[in-house]
Design goal:
This protein is of the alpha+beta class. It is built from 7 helices and 8 strands; from the N terminus they run ααβααβαβββααβββ. The protein has a 6-stranded mixed β-sheet. The protein has a two-stranded antiparallel sheet with strand order 6-8.
Length: 306
Amino acid sequence: MTEIETESARSATNPGATPLLRPLTGPIDLSQIDLDMNEGLREVREGLTRFLMPYKFAIDEVMTKLNILQEEFTQTGEYNPIEHVSSRLKDPDSIIEKMRRRGVPLQTDQVRETITDIAGVRVVCAFISDVYRVFELLTAHNDVTIYQVKDYIEHPKPNGYRSLHLLLEVPVFLSSGPVQTIVEVQIRTIAMDFWASLEHKIYYKYDTEVPAHLLQGLSDAAEQAGQLDATMEGLHIAIRGGQNAGRSVVAVPERTGQHAADRASAHDAPGQDAPAQQGKHAAPTTTEPIPLSEEQDRNPVVRRIA
């Protein structure tokens, strides 16, 4: 039986059911389906799988941009700031669990607004300056819109976590037309990535109830990783003949919700900090940073090497 026939048969046996087979961009209301029944859970998973397809394609778009940069640097012999790249797409069960935990109806339009890390790409670099170089290269594309930037390198989380987090909107070209889709991009150094991987394993092992001595150890390790990054950055500059010597780190105001090409303006001159602007996916600011996928966060500035 084909997928269309399966959906038709299901609608015939349950006239009140909403058909799940529709264009990928159409809203789907899954909130009335009984998740405690195997059939209901299967229907929800099928609906979310279709909903997730544009996010998968958006990951492909970002990965293609990064792969092109890497190939270009390889062919030209230029310095490549990218060590390696990985990606992941949230699975339907993770989305169901998160929406339940937040008490939000399982409707795809609500999912889109509530969960901003459905599509994720991680870029690992050798040096801190490389992190901001990749940020500049990736967001220089005219079809990339910056919705949110969180600089946890300049402003580490209380537990020591450091990374540059971006919410980027990229167009996905479907048969029904372009669909603007959000992708979370994390850019960090090798040391930051090593620390984050260890922290994740510890929290998973202890189910978030981590003993105090391990928390202190993680904090100490984060400090040491930061010192290592600073030392390696100095060696990197020395190896390159000091060509970065004398350059200062300046603030780049956040241009959330605007195309990357519009970021260059007179207000971006060194030493000038324009008020941060936020797009529809950006959240109000608070005094302490919390995970990127949550609703509130303070608004750390973005740095670049001047």
